[in-house]
Amino acid sequence: MNPYSGTDGPLDQPSDPTIALLNAEMRAAAEDASIRAVLVDVYPIFAGRAHELTNLDKPRPDFHPDDEGYRLMAEAIFNAYRE
Description:
By secondary structure, this protein is mainly α. It has helices at residues 12-31, 43-46, 50-53, 67-82, and strands at 54-55, 62-65. It has a two-stranded antiparallel sheet with strand order 1-2.
């Protein structure tokens, strides 16, 4: 997830390639049979929604998800394990 996606700030666009590389590494690790992991891609949930789903606009800015962001992440994880 790019926590700056949709902010149009200086970290919005430059973060995308870095996040894509990190996601590719995590996907490769999750596909390794010896690791036995389930990858839940939350990037699409947060794409363009930093102002809605993080604490960047709070009095003490923080790029971590807010309550709704965490709820959506938990829902995605729950749904991945139901499949």
